[in-house]
Amino acid sequence: MRLSILFLFAFLISSFSFSQGNESKLREKELELSQLLAELRSVKEDAKIDDLNAEFKKEFKRALLIDGAFDYPFESLRTVGKIHSQDKLVRVITWNVQYENLAFNYSSFIMKKDERRNKVYVTELNRQQQPYSMIEGESVTDENWYGALYYDIIDVKRRSRTFYTLLGYDANNQSSSIKLIDVLYFTGSKPNFGYPLFNTKNGRARRVIFEHSAKATMSLKYDDKREKIIFDHLTPESPNLKEFRSYYIPDMSYDAFNWDGKQWNLEEDIIAINKEESDRVELKAYDSKLDTVVTVPVKKKWINPEDPNSAVSGGKHQAITPEDIEEGNSKKNKKKRKKEKKRKSSYPPSNIGRP
What we know:
Elements: H1 2-42, H2 46-64, E1 81-84, E2 90-98, E3 104-114, E4 119-125, H3 132-135, E5 140-141, E6 149-158, E7 161-170, E8 176-187, E9 190-193, E10 198-200, E11 203-205, E12 208-213, E13 220-223, E14 228-236, E15 248-259, E16 264-270, E17 280-287, E18 292-299, H4 322-345
Helix pairs in contact: 1-2
């Protein structure tokens, strides 16, 4: 009996020491990664960005392979997105870099915990720069990932299988931004993206992509109380701009996807309700300084649709054309000249040069 107690005590001490040792390794690795990330964010030349990002990726993967990394927060890596699934079996890590031409590139690791084997698998996603239209209806793997920042994950079960619904963001280009809903699922330990779980107006879809004006902010978030993915309905600024996604903006109505146990079903024109107990709401937004998606608390504010300064005028969206901008600038210049003329006339006559 005494030997058994001593053996158990020795085992616990050994396990504790091992855990402490890994914690120390992870802290050291985090410090190294934090310094690399700061350097990566400070450089401007594309070649240096690629070199430093490759080095950061390599060292990050080494850190993720250390026992205990699955739950380690890496808090100092503020511009790296880190989310866990609700069942605590999946961790998704994403970040991006911006080039001189304002284009973006994305990197990611997927961590999958195997509880039976007491093992964590780490997979690096390799981005293939291809248009979303090419992969909208297809499944992709770690070898041909499209690239995005994932900021939320929702576990859903279909029969005995778990699927992980991802909410993501892509800065895309100077004209348009993209929000997306995708499905992460596993074949063994290998991650795959895109599964026909979405029942839309156009039939069954593997993922849902929302492209909109880069000047607009689209809300896409999961309401855990109502168990719905709620998002802004997008509409073109003018009917004749219907074919151009870079002119789509939120129209102050909301749609949603509701899980019925088998699939996500589209519901149109729902009422979006904010938390009653708070006078603030939380929005997901892209922070250009931190170069990542962040949660921003803002005060609730009613927007008067009759306000000429609001996003809509008279209940109808107004498309801004180059002629409108030119006309506005012309009016501003006329006002400016009028003010200058008035100011000059108010000065007393100059005596310079008089005898």
